[in-house]
Amino acid sequence: MPDPLIRIENLVKRFPMGENSLTALDNINLSFQRGEFAGLVGPSGSGKTTLLNIVGSLDVPTEGRVTVLGKEVGNLSNQDAAALRNHHIGFIFQTFNLLPVYSVFENVEFPLLLQKAEPARRREAVMQALEWVGLADRHDSRPNQLSGGQSQRVAIARAIVKNPALVLADEPTANLDAENSHIILKIMERLNRDLDCTFLFSTHDEKVIGYLHRKIQLEDGRVTADERFRPSREGEE
Question: I need a labelling partner for 44 at 20 to 30 A (CA). Which of 13, 123, 179, 207 fits?
């Protein structure tokens, strides 16, 4: 078996609270292979987002090791952590985080500007990403002209435009109704399959959980269950 895309070993994360500290993650051991469609599941305060942030090199362990694409997150400089994110990791947030003064095209193009990609490559990659999410005809629209579901589809296009090895999605359906949630999840499942891109969710939404191929249950910062499922929704309309 190839080396894992993500390897988490004896991970502990503590946050200072006055003279004491809060243990958000307590001795986490997990690994993820390329192409997984997995979720960190649990109630608020269980450590899901903290773990996602460390995997995404937005935070560092207090103890233990987290290795992503062969890079140990705790040892990266700020510049190297930014390079890992800019080139290999896409992010999807519950609040979309679209820049309101930019068009749909410009929002999706932004990660490629950080990479200093050539203009012709940027245009081709952006339009392909918008085709993947069914919004190529809205490339000139502004975010305030889009519905919530369309805004999240733009956010997905922005996350996958650089063809990342890993997409991290933090409660991506929290602000969507059921119909748009299923549309978004089917798009992400298809991209996972077609692009061989690993998706890792943080969620407590049962709709998301129903699409996962692997569910890791977190409670009080500990892994209490790790279940794998056969894909059940592929091809559903």
Answer: 179
